[in-house]
Write a structure and sequence with these properties.
alpha+beta, Rossmann fold, six-stranded mixed β-sheet, five-stranded antiparallel β-sheet, 9 helices, globular
Length: 362
């Protein structure tokens, strides 16, 4: 069966975890939620580093099945694990750390990148003779990712691996990881509480709170939920859309993209002409007008039709959903604005979006 099927439950002090989910064995599935909700515990249970009641099945192979009394030890699970801290072997240099991962591969496996090839792909070939304590945080995480991938795992587990890294370094490593993941086709379960990382990485998203699953699905659907902030404490409603890269404007250092037949202008997009780019648009960064504004600095003005109006209970706000040629964008505006603009289902509107409000898929 081409799926990762997990069901774990148990208590640690006053904390209780009761979690069950199934995700495909391709792409990146993200566990998202506030600190302390049980995300790391789930990864540890999958890896066999911690035990709770339940079962863990990866692509048809049982790693834990309490009904049969089965519990494979960690070294038999073929799971690659990248922690928040790189956790490299301090007594080994970079090459030796990478070789450790390579030696953990199943003897029946052939092909795949060599240690030197992996070092080259990760941009750390010049570091192979260094000790971990002579590496930067970003360099250590590259080594940790390489070591995990070289073990040719059936499942890659990543526990907030980019937390604390400089924004540009994080962006570069995420881009490298996406390239490697696509080439090696290793399913990944990724833990984060960073919405930008979800937008950049997730193919499937599981939102957690207080040891349980709140919702699961494609990020484009989950991002639309306006009721998740009360559960997670940090979720922010918005939209995930896919736009196509059209051209670069060298004069203004802008990139022109196409979304449902309309133009978007962004800065800093690293994509090839014709490539699809995934964008997150926060509901709070979208304003609405019933006439096209003139004499305004905002460049991204999209024409659409009101598809939904969702009043937020006990607040001054409403979430409106604007259909733009099949793409849906949310705008969080006041209920007063809804009334004064005379908005209703089917109203033609102009959605105003700031360029800086986009999260680019790197």
């Amino acid at each position: 069966m081409d799926a990762v099927n997990v069901a774990v439950s148990g208590s640690r002090g006053r904390f209780h975890l009761d979690m069950a989910f199934e995700v495909p064995t391709n792409g990146v599935s993200v566990l998202f939620g506030p600190s302390g909700c049980g995300k790391t515990t789930i990864l540890r249970c999958i890896a066999g580093l911690e035990r709770m009641s339940g079962h863990v099945v990866v692509a048809g192979q049982s790693w834990q099945d309490d009904r049969r009394g089965l519990f494979l030890p960690p070294h038999l699970r073929q799971a690659g694990y990248v922690f928040q801290e790189a956790s490299l072997f301090a007594h080994l240099n970079v090459r030796q750390n990478l070789e450790f991962g390579y030696k953990r591969r199943s003897a029946s496996l052939t092909g795949g990148p060599s240690v030197d090839e992996m070092a080259g792909m990760l941009g750390i070939a010049h570091l192979v003779g260094r000790s971990p304590h002579n590496l930067s945080g970003g360099e250590r995480q590259r080594v940790a990712i390489g070591r995990a991938l070289l073990s040719a795992p059936r499942l890659l587990l990543m526990d907030e691996p980019f937390t604390g890294l400089d924004r540009q370094i994080k962006k570069e490593i995420i881009a490298l990881f996406l390239h490697l993941r696509g080439r090696l086709a290793i399913p990944t379960l990724y833990v984060t509480h960073d919405m930008a990382e979800v937008a950049a990485l997730a193919d499937e998203m599981i939102v957690m709170a207080d040891g349980r699953k709140i919702i699961q699905g494609p990020p484009s659907r989950v991002f639309e939920r306006v009721d998740l902030q009360s559960a997670t404490g940090r979720f922010e409603a918005g939209t995930l859309v896919v736009a196509r890269m059209l051209e670069r404007d060298i004069r203004y250092d802008l990139t022109r993209l196409e979304l449902s037949g309309q133009d978007l202008f962004l800065t800093g997009v690293e994509a090839e002409i014709g490539e699809d780019v995934r964008l997150r648009i926060r509901a709070r960064d979208v304003s609405l007008a019933t006439e096209r504004p003139t004499g305004i600095s905002i460049r991204n003005i999209l024409t659409g039709v009101i598809a939904e109006i969702l009043v937020e209970p006990d607040t001054a706000f409403a979430e409106t959903v604007v259909d733009i040629g099949g793409s849906r964008i949310r705008a969080r505006i006041t209920r007063m604005a809804v009334d004064e603009l005379g908005l209703s289902i089917g109203s033609r509107v102009f959605a105003l979006i700031k360029s800086v409000s986009f999260d680019r898929r790197v």
